[in-house]
Amino acid sequence: MQQFFQQLVSGLADGAIFGSLALALVLIYKATEVINFAQGEMAMFTTYISWSLITHHGFSFWEAFFATLLIAFVGGVLLQRTLIRPLERASVLTTVMATIALLVIFNGLAAWIWSPQLQFFPSPFPTTSWVIGGVHISKQDLGTFGVTIGCVFVLWLFFRFTKLGLAMRAGALNPAAARLLGVRTSWLLALGWGFAAALGAVSGMMVAPTVFLTPNMMQAVLIYAFAAAVLGGLESPIGAVVGGLALGVMLNMLGTYVHPVTSELRLPVALGVLLVVLLIKPAGLFGRVVVRRV
Amino acid sequence: MTPLLELSEVSARYGQVAALHGVSLTVDEGEMVALLGANGAGKTTTLRAVSGTVRKSGDVLVAGKRLRRATPESVARDGVAHVPEGRGIFSELTVWENLRMGAYMVRRPDFKVVLDYFPWLESRRNQQAGTLSGGEQQMLALARAFLARPRLLMLDEPSLGLAPLVTREVFRVVSDLNEKEGLAVLVVEQNAATALAAAQRAYVLETGRVVVTGTADELRSNDAVRTAYLGY
């Protein structure tokens, strides 16, 4: 039973990381139907920036954390304005190809700037645990979960309660109608890229302490995020987060209780989940059917 | 007096297919003008040429000034509201969220005036807009457009898919907004009788050209218009 709760918490921490990257994917997909394959590498790149701020420029972890969020946001906006927006009229596939190009570019660039060697990335949380009723709850896991879900929650507040957030939702649902109401949808898409990049940066900075920082650090996480997003329904932001948490818990439980599922099998299991969802329920768990009357 | 809206020699095409061949028309301040014609005559394209949702040549002037930019968001900011075919409701959002989107450009939106004209919206504010009936959706689209405080309201086939009684109700509200609020209206309609009853003037389009124009009374007594569009 103790083991169960420990695995649950650690699964939720992993899952929150998958979920936040999945949410970043969904934000862009929902507005433009583009899957941003570079999302993971953008996260990795910004994590290197925060590492550089901490180790070379004397920033504390949290100073670097918030500075990196800002840098990632601005970077995401600029990326959309300079590279993605000119492809606005091209097919979705063209834009997807451009994001695959970005994936390779960011990966190579990070290795070139910071060398491909493993780097130690500091954690803001102590390595100790709380013991509650015999259950060891790692502060690292709980902190990762709290920070990631906290960031997701702030974003939810923005979309739910601000005029700009409402306009972004409306623009994603029906861009033509939104423009007729005076909404500059093109800029809102850039804003969406900024938020997605910042969310990715959160997942990168939260996963880096446990997996070490390398240019390939986010590749597996991106696959988990895909699986999480598909599990939740690619159109559903809540689905992405819940899908991430479910996947994280599931992988930890399988690793603990089902003997042959070793760490080598984690990725195949995640992709297996992706395939099964696509076969059985392509809309995902939260892909709701919209009620319409004409 | 400078007209509120003036189109001179406006042409537009969809790819290779020309839809408008040099359309000229005007709408004065506080006036309600109907745009009549059969399917494919270019009525919708005329509205789209104004709101910047189709590429055009020729001049569109609002209050004597050329539009700053021919993009939909810019035209909307110049005070021209366009309720498109199909109404452009955000079906997944609530009624109230749709209204807030209408007020997107307005610093201090006056929801109260709008609720005076559409009192039933209050009790439905948290309902998903897509679950409203067709007539209610049309009303919501009207309310939403009016919230932006436009100088000119362009309506595309407000009667489409609505029962005659509901259509009458929609036109009653439009006439109210026109008379009491001084809102200029350019309305596209297939239902010529309804439109001529509400509008002061009208233009008849055929294959992308204006073929007849005059006051509503003149058009009602015009034999060609009567047989082609009024059916008696």
Structural class, judged by helices and strands of chain A?
A: mainly alpha
Q: Mind telling me the CATH superfamily name of chain B?
A: P-loop containing nucleotide triphosphate hydrolases
Measured as a percent range, the helix fraction of chain A is: over 70%
What does the main sheet of chain A amount to? 2 strands, antiparallel
Biggest chain pair interface:
A-B, 22 and 31 residues
Low-confidence stretches of chain B: none
**Helical percent range of chain B?**
25-40%
* Tally of contiguous helical segments of chain A: 11
Number of strands of chain A: 2
What class would the helix/strand composition of chain B place it in? alpha/beta
Q: Kindly report how far apart the N and C termini of chain B lie.
A: 37 Å
Structure description:
The complex is a heterodimer of chains A (294) and B (232). By secondary structure, chain A is mainly alpha-helical. Chain A has one domain (2-219). Chain A contains 11 helices and 2 strands, in the order H-H-H-H-E-E-H-H-H-H-H-H-H. Chain A has helices at residues 2-32, 39-57, 61-84, 92-114, 139-161, 163-173, 175-180, 185-211, 217-232, 237-257, 266-280, and strands at 129-132, 135-138. Chain A has a two-stranded antiparallel sheet. Chain A starts with a helix and ends in a 14-residue tail after the last helix. In chain A, 46% of the residues are buried. The mean pLDDT of chain A is 90. Chain B has 232 residues and is α/β, with parallel strands linked by helices. Chain B has a single domain (5-230), classed as 3-Layer(aba) Sandwich (Rossmann fold). Chain B has 9 helices and 10 strands. Chain B has helices at 43-51, 72-77, 95-102, 111-117, 134-147, 164-180, 192-198, 216-220, 223-230, and strands spanning 5-14, 17-27, 32-37, 56-62, 65-66, 80-83, 152-156, 184-189, 201-206, 209-215. Chain B has a 6-stranded mixed beta sheet, sandwiched between helices. In chain B, strands 2-1-4-5 form a 4-stranded antiparallel beta sheet, with helices on one face. In chain B, helix 4 (111-117) packs antiparallel against helix 5 (134-147) and helix 5 packs parallel to helix 6 (164-180). The longest helix of chain B is centred in the last third of the chain and has 17 residues, at 164-180. Chain B is globular. In chain B, 46% of the residues are buried. The interface between A and B is medium-sized, with 22 and 31 residues.
